[in-house]
Amino acid sequence: MATLYAAISFSAKVGRCKAPAVTWKGSGVSGRNLISMGATRTGLIFLRPSRFRVCVAKAETVSKVMDIVKQQLALGEDAALTPESRFTEFGADSLDTVEIVMALEEEFKITVEEDNAQSITTIQEAADLIDKLVDEKPAA
User: Fold this and answer.
1) What does the pLDDT look like over 45-62, one tens digit per residue?
2) Do both 79 and 41 map to the same domain?
3) Would 85 be classed as within a structural domain?
4) Residue 1 domain-assigned?
5) What gap in Å lies between CA 138 and CA 118, rounded to an integer?
6) Are residues 24 and 64 both part of a single domain?
7) Are residues 130 and 84 in the same domain?
8) Which residues contact 14 (CB under 8 A, 6 or more apart)?
9) Within the chain, how many helices (H) and strands (E) appear?
10) Are residues 94 and 38 in the same domain?
11) Could you give the CA distance from residue 79 to residue 97 in angstroms, rounded to a whole number?
């Protein structure tokens, strides 16, 4: 994953009605990263990926994902899953992850692109992606 280092510079005349000129230099932003900003003495703002993630999935979606993961990995009802649980913690390999994604696609009637499927490693990531795809799906 590429790290984003970009700079935005502003220029404006104080006391005049000149709009600020904004210039952007940098690379693309990964959809999984948030951006943190910090100003310097030179007036430049540097953008860096944040270490924090926003969890947007509904509790119902997270619960359904947990149930499907338990079923696909043949875990007992007493298995202690949390949204932060990684599939690998419960012995899942890449084939198991593919089967989990296929079961999620069937349950939620969505299609997960291969790039997105490979990035799913936790229950929360799966639930966030599902809610995003369900919200984007056109109404039938």
Assistant:
1) 445 544 444 557 899 999
2) no
3) yes
4) no
5) 24
6) no
7) yes
8) none
9) 4, 4
10) no
11) 18
Closest CA to 130 of 106, 102, 108: 108
> Which residues touch 66 (CB under 8 Å, ≥6 apart)?
81, 123
Locus of tokens 């809610």: 131
Q: What tokens were used for 13? A: 């005349």
pLDDT digits (tens, 9 = 90+) for 84-96: 999 999 999 999 9
Domain count within the chain? 2
- Residue 11's pLDDT band (boundaries 50, 70, 90)? very low
Under DSSP, the state recorded for 18 is: P
The conformational region for residue 108 under phi > 0 = left, psi -120 to 50 = alpha, else beta, is: alpha
Structure tokens at 49: 């990926």
Query: pLDDT higher for 63 or 4?
Result: 63
Q: The whole model's pTM is what?
A: 0.59
The residues annotated with a catalytic role in the active site are: 93
